[in-house]
Amino acid sequence: METQVKLTTLTIPGNLFLAPIAGFTDRAFRSICIRYGADFTFTEMVSAEGIVRNNPKTLMLLRRADNEKLLGIQIFSSSAKTAGESVKKVMDFKPDLIDLNCGCPVSKIVRTGSGAALLLEPAKIKEIVKAIKVETDRPVSVKIRSGWDSEHINYLETAKMAVEGGAEMITLHPRTRSQGYSGRANWEHLKELKKNLPVPVIGSGDLFTTEDAIRMFEETDCNGIMFARGAIGNPPVFRQTKRLLQRGTASFPKNNTEDCRSFLKEKLEIARYHLNLSIKYRGASLAVKEMKKHICAYTKGLPNSSNLRAKIAKADSVETLNQILRDYYSTI
Ligand SMILES: Cc1cc2nc3c(=O)[nH]c(=O)nc-3n(C[C@H](O)[C@H](O)[C@H](O)COP(=O)(O)O)c2cc1C
What's the pTM value of the predicted model, to 2 decimals? Predict the structure, then answer.
């Protein structure tokens, strides 16, 4: 199976992607996923308008992690003009790829005509991609959903418009806007898109385990898969998937108590490492705020973890968070 994903001026060395996830895929988290084998990572969606206005918080989102050899910057915009202007500035951050968000279902975004609202205007997607391409020599990709709702399934049309505009890769999250993140992702749509599109197709949706990822490759023939919620609290999912793809064996045998225990310990070690990286990139006080949700995710399902999470929620300093993790680690 071909594992590289080839675009005109960019070869992505493998087929495991980390999704753009607002509020989660910052530099620290991306850096950890790369250590565990993610082949390509994206920033969270970044406002084109915020970039044009030089909003410092927005510009922070565009920065690369130290070990991030390849980076996709995802923007959202409802205007071709603003998208183009923003990409002119984005180029200062030397992205390897620019991605256009056409899938965000959140009302605040959709109301402005961006995110999933663009699915209602496929011609506009083409216009925005063209405007981006005027400003960059980097490849452009587009991330779409299946359609607005079950009455308006138009992923083939939106993807084709994007490609006509010059997009070189399409990611499909095969849910509709009205589904949000609930219900099942319809992988049949991925299979259909892959059959009909001349550019690489990346699959997103309901990838929570290594087995899900393998199944998506097999069932849809997509060129790459993109972990999203499945990577939160579990970056080793990239390593396990890579091993399974390369050697046909998963690294984490089931029903083996010792292996289970060392896997749980590893997750706690990742949580501590993640906290340190977050401090490095964002400073202590923001790190405490940001890391609570990640630590809750790392400890989800671990013994006695609801008690642990209650303590984490109350923590107000890096020292307290570290102490809580150390104490818990010693009980496993
Ligand atoms: C909290 C959250 C934030 C997200 N933020 C983004 C985003 O910034 N850009 C984007 O294209 N998709 C975003 N997504 C969608 C994911 O990238 C992915 O397509 C979706 O979660 C489906 O994959 P999953 O079912 O495996 O989680 C987000 C999803 C979640 C749950």
Answer: 0.96
